[in-house]
């Protein structure tokens, strides 16, 4: 016995299901990283029971992800603006040594931190202004990385600035059981999210990243916003360097390449388009948390740390492949829907 099909449903072309498929694909692209993180947490909760799924361990993961998240915010906002700043490790070391020098020469903590953050913003401004002269931003920031690493060593005299215990309030101290860097990350990402999604300048920043020429023709000063992207990136790098200094109570001139690697990995896992104009800071934060979660779970199981790097690389390649497949599928389905609408209109 065949069930009767209502005439209204029978008259609907099969192509009308296309928008729903596109919606599901876009959901997978934009929310897939949250599902992935949930799956990783669930897997480690069983594999590393009973030590992984505890509040104390959650604080360890959040604290471990904090510094990577700060640098990833700088990289992410820069990429969304259409620029890739590779000078972050040098900026972090430079800002840390500036703060270390000031504090060891009797300057108050608040003034030292303010100057350190301003140093990062100035580095970003210089990078932006040089890039506007027509130079490749990647080459410019690589050159800046080298110069800043040398300047940091000059300021420190080739050594470090140890014993900066007055910075513990933003490093090793806990408030209501939560490490101080976690609060800093929360404030940074909330402010960044609101800026990018709720302010005119933030929305224009994303528009410039998507298509600088189209933004310029619509009356937006695209060059100004590209420089702003560099400034924000430099500011985040300086903040990351200061938090790192606060955690170790020591300012070092060493520019660790792992900083940019981890930040770029978190941004790539978050699905931020390297072409600019599309991305989400909450997803960048989850990308940093995924890296910390993997490292934490494998450590609990006694697995060698280098396997965390291997697994992270596999996840990164997989996410890039999935991103490309989804983008192609969305484009193909939208084209099919458009063609179907055209043919239906002619009929």
TrEMBL record:
Subcellular location: Cell membrane
Top-level division of the source organism's lineage: Bacteria
InterPro entries cross-referenced by the UniProt entry: ABC_transp_permease
Location (main, coarse): membrane
Record keywords: Cell membrane, Membrane, Transmembrane, Transmembrane helix
Residues that span the membrane, as ranges: 33-53, 59-79, 110-132, 139-160, 180-197, 227-247, 259-277, 284-300, 306-326
Alphabetical list of CDD domains matching this protein: TM_PBP1_transp_AraH_like
Topology within the bilayer: Multi-pass membrane protein
Record protein name field: ABC transporter permease
Lineage: Bacteria, Bacillati, Actinomycetota, Actinomycetes, Micromonosporales
């Amino acid at each position: 016995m065949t069930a009767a099909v209502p005439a209204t449903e029978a008259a609907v072309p099969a192509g009308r299901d296309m928008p729903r498929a596109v919606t599901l694909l876009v959901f997978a692209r934009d929310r897939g990283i949250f599902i992935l993180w949930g799956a990783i947490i669930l897997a480690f909760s069983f594999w590393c029971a009973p030590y992984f799924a505890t509040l104390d361990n959650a604080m360890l993961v959040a604290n471990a992800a904090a510094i990577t998240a700060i640098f990833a915010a700088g990289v992410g906002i820069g990429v969304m603006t259409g620029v890739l700043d590779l000078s972050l490790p040098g900026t972090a070391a430079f800002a840390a040594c500036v703060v270390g020098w000031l504090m060891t020469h009797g300057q108050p903590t608040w003034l030292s931190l303010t100057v350190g953050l301003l140093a990062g913003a100035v580095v970003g401004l210089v990078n932006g202004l040089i890039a506007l002269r027509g130079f490749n931003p990647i080459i410019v920031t690589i050159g800046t990385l080298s110069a800043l690493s040398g300047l940091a060593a000059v300021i420190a005299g080739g050594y470090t600035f140890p014993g900066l215990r007055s910075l513990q309030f933003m490093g090793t101290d806990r408030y209501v059981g939560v490490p101080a860097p976690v609060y800093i990350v929360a404030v940074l990402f909330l402010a960044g999210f609101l800026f990018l999604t709720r302010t005119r300048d933030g929305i224009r920043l994303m528009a410039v990243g998507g298509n600088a020429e189209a933004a310029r023709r619509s009356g937006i000063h695209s060059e100004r916003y590209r420089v702003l992207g560099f400034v924000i990136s430099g500011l985040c790098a300086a903040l990351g360097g200061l938090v790192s200094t606060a955690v170790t109570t020591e300012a070092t001139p060493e520019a660790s390449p792992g900083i940019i690697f981890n930040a770029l990995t978190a941004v790539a896992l978050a699905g931020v388009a390297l072409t600019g104009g599309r991305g989400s800071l909450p997803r960048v934060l989850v990308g940093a948390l995924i890296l910390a979660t993997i490292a934490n779970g494998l450590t609990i199981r006694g697995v060698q740390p280098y396997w965390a790097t291997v697994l992270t690389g596999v996840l990164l390649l997989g996410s890039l492949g999935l991103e490309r497949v989804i983008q192609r599928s969305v484009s193909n389905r939208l084209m099919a829907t458009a063609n179907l609408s055209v043919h239906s209109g002619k009929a």
